[in-house]
Task: inverse folding
């Protein structure tokens, strides 16, 4: 409009009448727009008044300045967490071993919530104390899911002091406590948080929502969020009676409160079938917080005779250096013309590849598992790579065998990993197989990692690998922080 008016004004042969008509048209259009705008503003402000009759009873819902974090300066520790374990009195005695792996009597707060009084005589003092959940039979066919969903509220109602977080888990959830404390310590517990992780199997998230913290992996609800949830839970559960799990119901109720899931990749539902190996050997650069479904996957350390023994071995290593548990480091070895790639998953396993594999592949889980519900090849919420690569080649696997602490410098751990029998002497057409297949064990020396490192930007550590000159059968790996600007580039 302005352009055309301007061109008419400045054109050499303009016509006075045309110009005048244009000006009149412009003024009318401007007038019409103003009238429409003014009446719209009037309507919308009266609409605001109309829809919010009680607004003046509350403080300004849109304060000009939102107050900053009010987190207490005292760091979060184990005493600030209340655990709520969903269990049933019929199966507790078969399952309790998993809780006993991580529960520290006298140091921790919380309860196992049972459906009825336990049948057997005395309750073991190696377990969390128990309580019997309130009757939830009014919630229909899947009332047990509502019972488990109410544990947060029932734990809140117990009224323990100095509580910052409520952490829920199943009777077969294993927590890595120092890492749980480090993760929760990152968040301001005076605000409303819902922290956990969805399933590894996409099919599970499609069915039960990516916004659900899957309950077996455990999840954390901050005190203020638990307080709000406790107020609304009963009415809310009535609305979601048709939902399958307790975790989905919790999510639906938190959604009514407007509290979204904050994802922490260290919580593991382990919705996998087969061998969880590939996932555990390529953990994200984040602290390991939990594991679940351990009765449904292969023994994590195959040389142990039961899964419970295997997990106990993993947890014994974890105690030496909790923050480093399952953390990956990659190094390359070119001694004697080798092209070896070494991937350490600390406290668990080492993979030796007798060819060069770049870091962006080593950090991708080997697919040793299938999906949870339909036992398919995927998809998962992360990438995977096949276990057997070209030329029939598989990495050589080493599993944790021993943990020793250096007495002089307690700040260093030494873990030893021995070659898994089934991966010895597998045929492979790639050069270098013969010399690599001589290696029988790998020894990893690592400084203890500060758990507070997890409150900084995540970065993988670096390492160096040397084969022992006198004895070709051992590789020594030293883990350390990377030097400034250091890159782990394949040779
Ligand atoms: C945990 O922190 C509280 C302060 O909130 C402190 O009083 C207590 O001693 C700490 N407990 C442990 C086990 O460090
Ligand atoms: C290592 O890689 C180099 C270059 O790619 C190659 O020339 C050499 O033969 C390899 N050595 C072995 C033992 O495979």
Result:
């Amino acid at each position: 409009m302005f352009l055309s008016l301007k061109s008419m004004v400045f054109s050499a042969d303009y016509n006075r009448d045309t110009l005048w008509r244009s000006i009149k048209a412009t003024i009318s259009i401007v007038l019409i727009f103003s009238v429409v705008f003014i009446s719209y503003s009037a309507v919308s402000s009266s609409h605001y008044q109309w829809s919010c009759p009680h607004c003046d009873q509350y403080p300004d819902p849109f304060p000009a300045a939102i107050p900053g974090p009010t987190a207490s300066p005292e760091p979060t520790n184990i005493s600030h967490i209340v655990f709520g374990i969903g269990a049933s009195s019929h199966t507790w005695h078969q399952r309790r071993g998993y809780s006993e792996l991580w529960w520290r009597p006298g140091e921790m707060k919380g309860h196992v919530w049972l459906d009825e009084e336990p049948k057997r005589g005395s309750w073991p003092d190696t377990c969390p104390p128990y309580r019997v959940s309130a009757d939830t039979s009014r919630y229909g066919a899947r009332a047990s899911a509502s019972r488990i969903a109410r544990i947060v509220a029932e734990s809140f109602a117990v009224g323990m002091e100095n509580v910052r977080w409520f952490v829920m888990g199943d009777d077969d959830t294993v927590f890595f406590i120092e890492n749980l404390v480090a993760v929760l310590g990152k968040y301001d517990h005076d605000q409303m948080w819902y922290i956990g992780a969805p399933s590894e199997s996409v099919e599970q998230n499609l069915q039960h929502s990516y916004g659900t913290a899957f309950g077996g992996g455990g999840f954390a609800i901050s005190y203020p969020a638990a307080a709000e949830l406790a107020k609304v839970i009963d009415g809310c559960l009535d609305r979601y009676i048709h939902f399958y799990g307790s975790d989905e119901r919790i999510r639906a109720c938190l959604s009514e409160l407007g509290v979204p899931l904050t994802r922490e990749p260290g919580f593991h539902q382990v919705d996998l079938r087969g061998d969880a190996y590939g996932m555990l050997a390529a953990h994200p650069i984040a602290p390991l917080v939990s594991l679940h479904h351990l009765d449904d996957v292969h023994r994590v350390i195959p040389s142990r005779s039961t899964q419970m023994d295997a997990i106990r071995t993993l947890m014994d290593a974890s105690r030496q250096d909790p923050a480093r548990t399952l953390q990956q480091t990659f190094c390359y070895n070119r001694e004697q013309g080798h092209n070896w790639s070494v991937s350490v998953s600390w406290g668990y396993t080492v993979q030796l590849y007798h060819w060069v594999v770049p870091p962006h592949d080593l950090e991708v889980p080997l697919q040793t598992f299938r999906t949870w519900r339909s036992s398919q090849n995927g998809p998962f919420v992360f990438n995977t790579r096949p276990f057997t690569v070209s030329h029939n080649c598989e990495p050589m696997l080493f599993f944790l065998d021993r943990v020793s602490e250096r007495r002089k410098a307690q700040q260093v751990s030494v873990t030893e990993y021995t070659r898994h029998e089934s991966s010895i002497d597998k045929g492979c057409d790639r050069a270098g197989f013969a010399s690599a297949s001589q290696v029988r064990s790998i020894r990893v020396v690592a400084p203890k990692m500060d758990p507070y490192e997890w409150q900084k930007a995540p970065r993988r550590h670096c390492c160096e690998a040397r084969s022992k000159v006198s004895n070709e059968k051992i590789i020594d790996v030293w883990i350390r922080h990377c030097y400034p600007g250091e890159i782990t580039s394949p040779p």
About this structure: The radius of gyration is 30 Å. The chain has two domains: 78-263, 321-480. The mean pLDDT is 87.
